[in-house]
Amino acid sequence: MINNMKALKSIGQVLAAIVYTCIFTGLLYLVLVLPLAWLLSLNTKVMILLLILLGGVLQFLIFGAQVLLMMPYGWIVKNNVVALVTSIGLMLFSLIRSDVMVWQSMSEHGTSAIVVAVIITILIIEALFMSITGIISVYSESKD
To answer: What distance in Å separates the CA atoms of residue 15 and residue 76, rounded to the nearest whole number?
Structure first.
């Protein structure tokens, strides 16, 4: 009976990893892209000035949102390597696919759009690195 409950918990964690990673990457993409898409609509000089003045605040807000969104992974990957690998794989796939879509849509809008696409790519790479590191550390702590 106890082994059946452990198996059921493991299956639930894998299913939760699939569902929540899709939600996590979607929300993370919105947090990363929406503010920068708004910046793209501004005049180039105003956009650069706002990036210089508000870049740190924007980065802090993105980091805070990402930390809050990662909290459910404490239960999802706890002692379950399959849920960990599933989460990391889906995260890589979703965010890389999103970055490709950003480049496809931005390449038609000129030089300032390319600058914004580079910034979004850097933010996505940073978010991927931080998320994967965070999920692995949560898993490592659950093994102790």
So the answer is: 9
Q: Give the count of beta carbons closer than 10 Å to the beta carbon of residue 92.
A: 14
The greatest distance separating any two alpha carbons of the chain, rounded to the nearest whole angstrom, comes to 66
Q: Tell me: pLDDT of 144 over 80.
A: no
Question: Alpha helices, DSSP H only, in 1-79?
Answer: 2-40, 44-70, 73-76
CA angle in degrees (0–180, nearest 5) for 27-30-34: 160
pLDDT, tens digit (0-9, with 9 covering 90-100), for 51-107: 788 878 878 888 888 888 888 888 888 888 999 999 999 999 999 998 898 888 877
Distance of CA 56 to the CA centre of its chain: 18
CA distance 53 to 64: 19
Report the helix count and the strand count for the chain, using DSSP H and E. Answer: 5, 0
State pTM to two decimals. Answer: 0.81
- The single residue listed with the structure tokens 């994967």 is 132
Residues 6+ apart with CB under 8 A from 136: 84, 88
Token pair, residue 86, equals 């599933």
